[in-house]
Amino acid sequence: MSIIDRIGAARLLPVVVLERAEDAVPLARALLAGGLDVAEVTFRSDAAEESIARIAREVPQMLIGAGTVLTPGQVDQAVNAGAKFLVTPGYNPAVVAQAAACGVPIVPGVNNPTGVETAMSAGLSLVKFFPAGPSGGVPFIKALMGPYGAMRFIPTGGISAANLKDYLALKAVLACGGSWMVEPALIRAGAFDRITELTAEAVALARSA
């Protein structure tokens, strides 16, 4: 199964912010216990690179990616640490090109037709729709599905248990990115059992969509 297919099979992509690298492995194991074997660790903290490396090394069954990748240098850092895919908040041609040079799948962020066409011109067929809620949510994705029938989306930003099924009901949505099951406060508190519970609930919800 390809990396993109694994994300699609999961239907959920947890967006994880790790402030301490020592939380990385317990977090990954909590997600696995809840039924998710894919996650995105964002480059929003200094612990991101080491966190990805620890998960890649100690929890190899987890498909780990890097998010909030903003520069070609961060592409190299993420890939060298063991990230198997990359996610960006916007479309940066230099970042997309560096990912291609490294042979790693990238899911760039877009929120308008121009962004979709820019991704298409680079040979991409999967983008992150971000920020999903403020950008128009489900109705906006439905509007994009008309002219861009071959494009798939991972909506992220404003996704919750309350609206997850609405997004996943759209044929164009491969998976949804979300952080409600991996809130930084839960990680900070070491509440990994609670993360497992929330993840299991989210997985059950996604599978019923």
Automatic annotation (TrEMBL):
**Any idea which GO molecular function terms this record carries?**
2-dehydro-3-deoxy-phosphogluconate aldolase activity
| Similarity section | Belongs to the KHG/KDPG aldolase family.
The entry's keywords: Carbohydrate metabolism, Lyase, Schiff base
Under which name does UniProt file this protein? 2-dehydro-3-deoxy-phosphogluconate aldolase
Pathway membership, UniProt:
Carbohydrate acid metabolism; 2-dehydro-3-deoxy-D-gluconate degradation; D-glyceraldehyde 3-phosphate and pyruvate from 2-dehydro-3-deoxy-D-gluconate: step 2/2
**NCBIfam families listed in its UniProt record:** eda, PRK05718.1
Describe its partners and assembly state: Homotrimer.
Query: For this protein, what is the EC number?
Result: 4.1.2.14
Instruction: List residues traversing the bilayer.
Output: none
Question: What organism is the protein native to?
Answer: Gemmobacter aquatilis
Superkingdom field: Bacteria
What Pfam family is a match for this entry? Aldolase
Quote the catalytic activity from the record.
2-dehydro-3-deoxy-6-phospho-D-gluconate = D-glyceraldehyde 3-phosphate + pyruvate
Xref: InterPro entries? Aldlse_KDPG_KHG (IPR000887), Aldolase_TIM (IPR013785), KDPG/KHG_AS_1 (IPR031337), KDPG/KHG_AS_2 (IPR031338)
